[in-house]
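Reviewers of the previous submission asked for a worked example of the structure-prediction workflow described in the proposal, so we include one complete record here. The input consisted solely of the amino acid sequence. No template or homolog information was supplied to the procedure at any stage.
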Amino acid sequence: MAAMSVYAHNIEFQIIRQEVRNGMYNPLSYLVANSMVQIPMIMLLSCCAMGLPAYVGANLDGRQFHKLMGIYSATLWTFEASAQLMGVLCTNALLGMLGYIFYWIFSYLYAGLFLPEQAIPWPLKAMLYITPLRWSISALVKADFHGSVFEGAVLSNSTAGYTCVEQLGPCYGRTGEQVLDSVGKVFPLFGSADTNARDVPMIVGLGFATKLLYFAAVIYRSKAVKIRTP
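From that input alone, the workflow returned the following structure tokens.
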């Protein structure tokens, strides 16, 4: 969806630049107003995207609704800021959309689910830290699994801490922490350790950094026009 935002922001910036040329307002005023309107819309979109699918369809833990909505909103806000940046940096909207799609694909590939960190060479390993999806997936999964209880296993004194009972499918633990440790053997991104204190600030930090770059790009590309005084 944000790929279409690149096109929308590109067209909008052309109008904004012309209005600044006509002396209607300062670009900073537009940036502040745009940012204030963006936040509640992102939160509403998060509720629409996660509400029914996650809590009605996938039966996620409703006690963690506020955490998941906050993390998901921060992730959407960060990607939206990236779309805005691409829309302003590229004079051609289609090139901006293509650049954003490449950014999203890299974010998806280097999210920690497909490629182990030790197998990624530098400088490509930097994508692990400058794309938000890695931190977002880790934060969302751990926020939902911590404190949850799963069927198909019972607590025991075994080495794993649980014993699987007879069932149709495999089991990975009784508690959410045990399930995360089991899944973490295949996907090192997961584990029972609570890393939300690291993951969430990383998402927000990347969002603010991208937003600052967007502000700088708008101001820089608008400085060539002079605001007319009465």
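The two ends are 41 Å apart (CA to CA). We consider this example representative of the routine output the project will generate in years two and three.
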